Amino acid sequence: MKKLRVGIIGAGQIVEVTHMPNYMKNSDVVETLSIIDVNLDRAKYMAEKFNIPHYFSSYEEMFKHVELDAVSVCTPNKFHAEAVIAALNNGCHVLCEKPPAISKSEAERMTEAAKKNNKILTYNFHFRQSEEVQAIKRFIDAGEFGEVYSVKVQALRRRGIPGWGVFTNKDIQGGGPLIDIGVHMLDTALYLMGYPEVDYVSAVTYDKIGKKGGVGLMGGWDPKKFTVEDSAFGFIRFKNGASMILETAFALNMKDRSLMNVNLFGEKAGATVFPPVIYTEKHGSLIDMELPFLAEVDKHSRSIKSFIDACLGNEDLLCTADQGLIVQKIVDAFYESAETGQSVKL
Ligand SMILES: NC(=O)c1ccc[n+]([C@@H]2O[C@H](COP(=O)([O-])OP(=O)(O)OC[C@H]3O[C@@H](n4cnc5c(N)ncnc54)[C@H](O)[C@@H]3O)[C@@H](O)[C@H]2O)c1
Question: What angle, 0 to 180 degrees and rounded to 10, lies between the N-to-C axes of helices 183-193 and 321-340?
């Protein structure tokens, strides 16, 4: 059987710890032929480490010299759009790291390029691949929750400002915790709700701690280079009447070190997802149902495997380009609402 010929754009830590090990795990059906990075030494190091035959400093060179079927785009956020569109226009399916891009207009162009070229474009929202999410989804799909009318989403760290790389640089990342970790729980919640249409978003952002400096639980950071929000809080109303409260922070004076969770409130039952507990009423009693025996799975591994399978035509993708675009529209609306002080209609 012909193997899926894969290329990598951006050779940073996410490629080293997840994309490449997982492509190698599937070497019966995948061969990684090329890797590029603006830092050629980094591309060379990764090519040698993972036995990749070609490395370059630009994707233009890669597409000129190597024939590929699929590409992982793993650059900093600002460079996702141009790389994704180039890969799609060169006839490749694309797995792009999250978030889709740094603006709605970029994500729209990416979605259009996927449609025009009839290629797969998906995003690595790997939390939805967890057993916790999949188990709760089965309960929702079976009607056990009734209508899920409200959701509370949290992606919060007490002092988890990533000081390495470019995570505190607004120009390159497009924002802070909302676009970096908030999007994971936002996608998880939307996925569980069935991606309802958004009516409007109202939000505020703050930078009260990141710009001052202080204790870091994920290493130190340079407050002078901190140009993103350190927390964001918002309300989303959906056209079907459902609502969502989203709270996200790199730094917040709160009890826990970290909180990544989705709380669902339905007519017949509610739930927390991480860990999964269902709250309901049965036979005259209020009960909490735990799901204690779910398998521990490698979510990234599942995400990359599902991309490979979709490229080979074996499985429907879990995350679509259109869903990524909705996440990006919500992120844009959060930042616009925070800046203008007005609600933003989508
Ligand atoms: N799914 C997840 O949970 C997860 C986790 C970590 C990172 N990410 C995402 O992965 C992406 C990369 O993050 P990372 O942690 O690997 O960052 P990183 O800083 O370790 O690596 C980025 C690499 O891209 C290279 N690069 C920069 N500009 C480029 C360009 N224009 N063309 C090609 N290469 C370029 C850099 O030289 C660097 O080697 C980001 O979008 C981030 O949000 C996702």
Answer: 120
Check residue 317 and give its pLDDT. Answer: 63
Between the CA of 337 and the centroid of ligand 1 the distance, in Å, is 28
| Distance between Cα 167 and ligand 1 center (Å) | 10
- 16 Cα nearest atom in ligand 1: 16
Read off the pTM.
Answer: 0.97
pLDDT of residue 1: 74
All domains of the chain, ordered by start, with CATH? 4-123 (3.40.50.720), 128-295+327-345 (3.30.360.10)
Helix ranges (DSSP H) in the chain: 13-14, 20-25, 40-49, 59-65, 80-89, 104-117, 131-141, 170-173, 177, 183-193, 299-311, 321-340
For a ligand 1 pocket test, name from 16, 62, 75 the mutation site with the most ligand atoms within 8 angstroms of its C-beta. Answer: 75
Quick check: CB of 76 below 6 Å from ligand 1?
A: yes
